User: Which sequence fits this backbone?
């Protein structure tokens, strides 16, 4: 009995020492993730105030309308961020099975005539009084949670079998992607595909299965992009925007003018000329262009650096996660935020076609901001839990991973 009591005290002492040694400080990975996320939100609020001031005043008589709305969403998002920072991510096991059907039903409701709100040719929102909600944003989080839970329960050796690889992930991904594409929203459809295939890759699925699956997804996306006249026009405009500078190529050209006008240091905060009705959606999809014009190369490189550091810290959190579920959950969040940022910035800089995907944590949009902050809170907790586990255990060599074929 005495020896058992001594062992328990020793274990408790080691756990307490681990917690003490892992106290948060400014250089802690979890603290860095939290600080970068909050800094991006602040930068986004400042740029939304600048980019939307002219349009907001012209249409609503107040330069602060969009800023005030985003501020409300930011407060709600930060509350969820703090909640999920403090909530052990292991308690989220099973939540994907709840969120997935909710997201599925909301996507169906969005397509019901008279219920879904149509803006700019896309029916992607559900009205909530003076506000609106975009179910496709919830679908991203639901897919990440569901994928992490399902794949964490399957040993890597089972993913070598096609049936275990395809069921239930591919049908679950296909249903969400089909509903989002029906809105239509090709950008979010591609993003859902990237999240699903990316998480299968991280889980250990062999390339001989993933490459055909990815090729089929690209073929479907290409067919969808070329089937609708407006999507086909966007693709052709991306290839040569100056072929139709006043219609299909207008967004891209005005975005490039904004970026080129900024120079190294920018024209000054609030001094953008392109926000004076030249760039449509200046405070949403093209906020990065206004940021480049007002803050120059220095500002854009700083934002790119923050996203790159966030991705690095997320990969580190996934690597040091205490269990397979945490590793997959962190990986899914990193894929989601990183790919979405790349797609948005690629469209703004004319490297990719314009798809209408917002820049995470910066662009105007309550649904995107709240759910992105929720994801960042989960990622912060995984980074924190990984540090606790790492401090409390003796060092062991990493297990050898199965070679992909």
Assistant:
């Amino acid at each position: 009995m005495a020896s058992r009591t001594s062992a328990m005290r020793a274990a408790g002492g080691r756990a307490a020492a681990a917690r003490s040694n892992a106290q948060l400080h400014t250089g802690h990975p979890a603290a860095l993730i939290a600080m970068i996320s909050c800094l991006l939100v602040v930068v986004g609020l400042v740029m939304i105030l600048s980019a939307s001031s002219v349009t907001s005043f012209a249409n609503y008589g107040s330069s602060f309308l969009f800023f005030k709305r985003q501020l409300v969403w930011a407060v709600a998002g930060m509350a969820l961020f703090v909640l999920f920072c403090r909530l052990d991510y292991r308690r989220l096991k099973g939540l994907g099975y709840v969120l997935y059907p909710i997201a599925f039903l909301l996507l169906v409701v969005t397509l019901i005539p008279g219920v879904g709100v149509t803006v700019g040719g896309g029916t992607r929102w559900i009205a909530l009084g003076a506000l609106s909600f975009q179910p496709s944003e919830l679908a991203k989080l639901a897919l990440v949670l569901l994928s992490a839970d399902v794949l964490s329960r399957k040993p890597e050796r089972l993913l070598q079998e096609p049936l275990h690889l395809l069921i239930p992930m591919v049908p679950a991904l296909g249903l969400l992607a089909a509903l989002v594409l029906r809105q239509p929203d090709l950008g979010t459809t591609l993003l859902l595909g990237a999240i699903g295939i990316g998480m299968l890759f991280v889980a250990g699925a062999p390339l001989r299965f993933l490459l055909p699956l990815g090729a089929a997804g690209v073929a479907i996306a290409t067919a969808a992009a070329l089937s609708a006249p407006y999507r086909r026009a966007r693709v052709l405009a991306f290839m040569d925007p100056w072929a139709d500078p006043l219609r299909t190529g207008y967004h891209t050209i005005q975005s490039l003018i904004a970026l080129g006008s900024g120079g190294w240091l920018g024209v000054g905060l609030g001094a953008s000329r392109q926000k004076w009705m030249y760039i449509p959606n200046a405070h949403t999809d093209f906020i990065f262009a206004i940021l480049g014009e007002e803050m120059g190369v220095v500002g854009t490189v700083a934002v790119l650096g923050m996203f790159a550091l966030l991705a690095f810290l997320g990969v580190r959190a996934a690597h040091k996660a205490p269990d397979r579920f945490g590793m997959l959950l962190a990986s899914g969040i990193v894929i989601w935020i990183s790919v979405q940022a790349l797609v948005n910035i690629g469209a703004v800089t004319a490297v990719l076609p314009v798809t209408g995907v917002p820049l995470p944590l910066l662009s105007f949009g309550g649904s995107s901001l709240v759910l992105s902050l929720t994801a960042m809170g989960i990622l912060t907790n995984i980074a924190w839990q990984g540090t606790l586990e790492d401090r409390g255990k003796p060092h062991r060599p990493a297990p050898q991973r199965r070679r992909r074929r």
